[in-house]
Specification:
Layout: E1 4-5, E2 8-9, H1 10-33, H2 37-62, H3 68-71, H4 74-78, H5 85-100, H6 104-113, H7 116-129, H8 160-177, H9 187-202, H10 220-254
Antiparallel strand pairs: 1-2
Helix pairs in contact: 1-2, 1-6, 1-7, 2-5, 5-6, 6-9, 7-8, 8-9, 9-10
Amino acid sequence: MWPNMGPIKTYGVFYLVGITLHFVLGWRIARSTGLQRRVWIAAGVCYMLGMTVGAKVLSDLRYGILDLPRLLQAEHWLQGGLWGGLLAYFALAVPAVLLLSRQRRAALDLVASTVPLPWICAKLGCLCQGCCYGRPCSLPWAVTFPEGGPAPSGVPLHPTQLYEIGVMLIVLLVLLLLKSDRWKGTKLLWFLMIYGLGRALTDFLRGDAEGRLYFGLLSLTQLLCAFSAVVALFLLGLHLHGMNCRAPLTQADGA
């Protein structure tokens, strides 16, 4: 694809654009919902740390090479190897915004709503770099990569990066449709349910090494995503049940 912009890696450029975009989106959403400045700044910092330090630490943990002196070496960072950036982001951002804001539902919505566009940027970087590539296929939309990158060169592959972008576009559309007050505070659950299910399914078409498989079929990423989707679906079900229970009481009070 397009791994370099002169001496700069294209992946890094898209990554930086995504982090910057997260700050901008957080600022705009906070302004429209009345959230304090510290909330969107905290969410942006958590995204930046989660997608860099968090993803590097989780990647090293996954492959059993976590070592503090290694993390302090620039060479280790230049070698790539990021995994679990969104997991790190949510683990940092959710408690941070809950502590910093009294408008907790709006703050949780901000945590979710600021992710789709920056994540699309990250996946475009993956496409240019050739990482997160798919399995060989003969479909008309298969992509091939040049030599020198992570993906096998000259082999038609599933564009799994684009599949994941498609999942994120669905997430973005659903979040934009959740304008009613009845859904306030649930956007994070919708995000986890849709993206978790979509990522668990699209990863069946991934061709890069994911490491040890679980139950002979699922990878660690798929297990985490599927678990998140199930938990989110359960909590959304509880939310809907609570709204249905409150509706008759509201009608009775009005009568």
